[in-house]
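Shapes recur. One chain:

:::
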Amino acid sequence: MGLKKNLALCIILLSSFCLPVFSQQVAKPLPTSKHGFIVIAHRGSHLTKPENTIAAIEEAIALGADYVELDLRTTRDGQLVLLHNDRVDQVSNGKGLIKDLDFEEVKKLTLKGTDGSMHQVASFADALKTCKGRINIYLDFKAADVNQAYKAIEKAGMADQVLVYINELQQYYSWKKVAPNMPLMSSLDKAIGTKEELLKALDKMPLDAVDNIPSENLLPVIRSLGMSVFLDVQKRNETPDDWMNAMKKGIQGMQTDHPEELIKYLKLNKLRDGLKIPSGK
C-alpha cells in the first residue's frame, strides 16, 4: 500500500475517534390518521366519564379524536389494565396498589362518572377491542411487561394503531428487542439546548415522536429527522390561546383534556389539518 493510501487510512481512522458519530435514523411512520392535525384525548374523554374507562374511549371516538391516551399497569396476577396512578383509591371505591390486587378483585371496583354513571376498570384487551379500526392508541407504558403487552396488541390486530410512550430507558430497550417496528415516543431532556446535544441524546435513544421541545431552535432538527411533536396542553381550563400558541410552533398534534372543544375550535377555524408554518421557522 502506497504512502498516500496509508495516510488517507490513518486520517479516516483518527476522524472516527475525534468526531461525534450520530446514528439517528429518520423516524418511523406513526399510525395513520384521518386528519392532518392530531387530537389526542388524554385518558379518554373524561370530563363526564371516568378516565381510562371504555366509556371514556367510546366518547373520544364519537367526538372524532385521532388518538386516545391510555395508561397501562398490571394486577397482582399479571393482568393488564388501564389505570393512571399506581393506586385504585383515587378513581374507584377501592383501596390499595393495583399491583397488590388480583384481576377478579379489580373487576368488582366501581368508578363513578360526574354524570352519575357507573363503570369498571378497563382491561387492556377490552380497550384494544374497542379501539380497533376506530381510533389510534397513545399507550403510556406505566408498569407492565413489554412482551405481554405486545402479544396483546398483536392478538387484537392493533400493531399498526399504537404509539408507545416510554417512561424509562429500560422500557425503550425492551420494546426495541420485542417489537423493533413499534413507533416509540418520550420526552426530551429539558437541558438539551444545541443540535449536537439533541443528536447525542437521540443516538442513545432514537425516537419517532416527542412530547416537548427543549429549545425552539431545535425544531428544524426535529423536523429533519421526521419526528412528530405532540405537545401536552391538557389542564382543567384550556383556552384557544393555549391551542394556538402550541400550533404556532409547527407541531403535528396535541394532547388535551377537552377534545370536544378543541375539535370544534379546529373545525371552526379550518385547522383540522393543521396550521401552515412558513418553511425555515
